[in-house]
Write a structure and sequence with these properties.
The chain is an alpha+beta fold. It contains four helices and seven strands; from the N terminus they run E-H-H-E-E-E-H-E-H-E-E. Strand 2 and strand 3 form a beta hairpin. It is globular. Helices cover 29% and strands 27% of the residues. The chain has one domain: Aminopeptidase. Strands 1-2-3-4-5-7-6 form a seven-stranded mixed β-sheet.
């Protein structure tokens, strides 16, 4: 079985959207309104691919997971009391693993990839948010050293979004 993490390509778009649709279905069946038919949508994902910020975990030639890494912080992040105020901060978005293969360490590998890339590129921290109802994701992030810095609300969602930060040591230090 060949696994690789690589930059997303436009020819991945249909398979990524199918992966997201399956994640949305499972989330909604579990009572979570974190994602829906309008987010993340085809335009959002296509823009991520065009900007070179979407990475694919490929399992035997098929996208099995995705993560988006950029410097775009939600406006709501301005209210957060970050520990790392200096330097550049990599922001993680839209981490997803196909429900049929969750629990096999793919999310953990995507997060390790993000942290390695951030350290190599001299970022001082990684910032992200997740849905308060997403217990599995929250538990994973906490186990991997991400710390909750506060909570934000996004329109149309029932629960809050804990905002998390992980401090990094750059590759040069």
């Amino acid at each position: 079985m060949e696994n690789v993490i690589r930059q997303g390509r436009m020819d991945d778009l249909e398979r990524i959207m199918a992966l997201i649709a399956e994640c949305v279905r499972v989330m909604q069946e579990g009572g979570s309104d974190q994602w829906n038919e309008s987010y993340p949508n085809r335009e959002v994902i296509a823009k991520d691919i065009e900007q070179g910020t979407l990475y694919v975990f490929e399992d035997d030639g098929t996208p099995a997971g995705i993560i988006v890494l950029d410097e775009n912080e939600a406006e709501e992040y301005q209210s957060i009391d970050w520990v790392q105020k200096e330097g550049r901060h990599l922001v993680m978005h839209r981490l997803a693993v196909h429900p049929e293969i969750q629990g096999k360490g793919i999310a953990r590998r995507l997060l390790a990839f993000a942290e390695d890339q951030a350290a190599r590129e001299g970022y001082s921290s990684i910032r992200m948010d997740t849905y308060a109802k997403n217990d599995r994701a929250l538990s994973l992030y906490l186990r991997l050293g991400y710390e909750v810095r506060g909570e934000v609300r996004f329109p149309g969602r029932i629960a809050n979004f804990p905002v998390m930060e992980k401090l990094l040591k750059s590759a040069e230090s």
